[in-house]
Amino acid sequence: MFKFLKGVVGGSGTGPKDLPYNIGEPYPSAWGSWTHHRGTSKEDGSSVSIFSLSGSSSQDGHLAAGRNGVKRLRTVRHPNILSFLHSTEAEISDGSTMKHTIYIVTEPVMPLSEKIKELNLTGTQRDEYFAWGLHQISKAVSFLNNDCKLVHGNVCLASVVVTPTLDWKLHAFDVLSEFDGNNEASNSAMLQYEWLIGSQYKSMELVKSDWGSIRKSPPWAIDSWGLGCLIYELFSGMKLSKTEELRNTSFIPKSLLPDYQRLLSSTPSRRLNPLKLIDNSEYFHNKLVETIQFMEILNLKDSVEKDSFFRKLPNLAEQLPRQIVLKKLLPLLSSSLEFGSAAAPALTALLKMGSWLSTEEFNIKVLPTIVKLFASNDRAIRVALLQHIDQFGESLSSQIVDEQVFPHVANGFADTSAFLRELTLKSMLVLAPKLSQRTISGSLLKYLSKLQVDEEPAIRTNTTILLGNIASYLNEATRKRVLINAFTVRALRDTFSPARAAGIMALSATISYYDMTEISTRILPNIVVLTSDPDGDVRTKAFQAIDQFLLIAKQHHEKLITGDTNETAGAGVPSIAGNASLLGWAMSSLTLKGKASEHGSLASANATTTPDLTTSNPSSGGYADTASSAVNISDQPRPSSPTSTDGGWGEADSGLLQEDHDSDKEGWDDIEPLEEQKPPSLSSIQAAQQRPVVHQKSQNTSFSQPKTATRTSKASDEDDLWGPVAVPASRTVPHIVNVQPAAPKEDDGLWGSIAVAPPKTTSRPLKTKASAALDDSDPWAAIAAPPPTTKAKPLSLGRGRGTKPASARLGAQRIDRSSPGS
């Protein structure tokens, strides 16, 4: 018999050296003669609990009861019963004697008495936590009594342990036995090891060893008494020393008192069934118990119940014990989100609970779940993640953002919902600093190029603002290729006035990245045009920017005079005051002006603080102080490029990015700057206005004027100072309209030198053959349309337009073979 029990208890080894766990420090208290140790796994270092029981010989009664406990714990499984992992029995040398020791390895737990001291809960929070714990132990006892027909025999404070998630679990199965209710006439002991139970925990019939009465009683009679002892020890804070102390009910909550008295009834048959204690007692109906119960059966709830529950959870969590929320509710919430049973509003509660954790705990308990959620196809989850990205974005590592987060977030750039596109755009303020140069140049800039021509004007404005914010993270070559085209060719010519204003501010915020040539030839000419903009705010910002860039030009001029050729055009120049206010407005413009059906309650996300385009001092007083600054701005060093060989940009420049540059070029390189076109001379225009116009009829209703007809020599382009600010060329094919010229006015000829350039067409230029020299006396010859490339077909003789060729005859024809000399 002993060999059989030893085989059941025994593990893989014959001693503690072969135990695959490390035995740590013991806890101050444990049930019976057992010692409760902390422990860790030798394989992965995970925490465990190790219980040990020693005896002088293998026939020791305590060891026999211990073997019974090991067998029962191994075979009985329930969520509220301690989980068994491993066991072994070995002979340990203790000096001159040998001791037989049983080891049980379980999930990591802590004695309930120690955990209560550690939590130190008081008042309502203590009662709520005790209610949850008693609820769990009552379920375990009910399972043993009602479902398994087993009797635990010694339910008390020492037989309860607590997991890291603050769940209560029942253990100490040494006395546990089957309920022998069928043999009522037998007077033999039903509980073989009842002598291990302390006399203060024994019910009246157990003290008298009235086994006949016990067998006639319900299976829960003994353990219901034990539950009453547990309740007394919990609320009194003292260990029960004698049975008479149970009559002191001053510590028991009033809502629990009737059930407490029924548990301790002197008549075993009238004692309360633990199952009814759970269902009927008012004490167990509180916020904590109901919240945890809802979370545990979340899969059984419908979408309406889930949505309502998770919207209330953030406020409810503040009223619950903080330790229980973090150690119990937070893991439940994370797993429910990860496996798809929770609704999108649960993310708000998760982040709120996560804010109560330390940075290290947040990265371990919350961040992995959030990263997995980015792969979700649920649009509501994606929106919630983007709305709260500022709360956890800083905790994401660059590798995780680049490899796991951005590929999923980037799908939002092309989403059909304008609101989701805007949220995706705003999220780049947090994510872009963590992206590699390859991802920024190869993916992000292409998405932003498309968003700059988005149908929503607010998204176009926000894209310009974002480019100004992330300019410092771009490679120097990429900045040269993208920024000016994005800000001038697109933003400054946008039909939405805030987009034009954003373009001006973005140029000012990124002034340090432009050299003097770019400022004078590509930036200033485009900004000057906006000084006559219909929008007052755009005009104001245009004048401020002009002052700022002219200050740079003056400083450059002074440096050239003094012989200093070091071009640090915009180094250290403060940007326009008020950039931050426009940034905040633009970020919320889509929510305020967009479609209400797409936004709904999500508009509150726009109230979050976003980074500004610049770091200028608000107290600088605008450009007045900038212009009068005594500090030579050009002397300040230009910020270094963030390019690093570690990011793989050098390889990308010569390989992948070069290929992208040739094909896509982020969408901005296909935007050519305005062509410098020399208008017809003043004398030619005046002469042309005094001559009648002869309109030639043509078979085509429209034609495309080739570029070669309007281009002039390079020397002429350099002399034309107004070329850079010419009206942008039209990309549509113009239609010829026969309009008689108005009578020439005396002042009309004065505007000829800055006349609007002919429209630039997208059609292929006509291939013209070399023609005769132009007539110098004809002022329109220089701008006349090129001759047609195909010959006109002869017209009919009846209309006098030419000779009609003889039509070919069918059939055989007579051939005149007579010689000319005959």
UniProtKB/TrEMBL annotation:
Disordered: annotated segments: 604-727, 741-822
Q: Name one GO molecular function term.
A: protein kinase activity
Q: In what ranges is there compositional bias, type Basic and acidic residues?
A: 658-668
* InterPro entries attached to this UniProt entry: ARM-like, ARM-type_fold, CIK-Related_Protein, HEAT_type_2, Kinase-like_dom_sf, Prot_kinase_dom
* Domain Protein kinase: from-to ranges: 1-284
Q: Which SUPFAM superfamilies match?
A: ARM repeat, Protein kinase-like (PK-like)
Polar residues: compositionally biased ranges: 604-646, 680-689, 696-713
Locate the compositionally biased regions of type Low complexity: 779-794
Among PROSITE patterns, the record links this protein to: HEAT_REPEAT, PROTEIN_KINASE_DOM
Q: Which residues form a coiled coil?
A: none
Repeat positions for HEAT:
366-404
Q: Which SMART domains match?
A: S_TKc
Question: What protein is this chain from?
Answer: Protein kinase domain-containing protein
Organism equals Ensete ventricosum
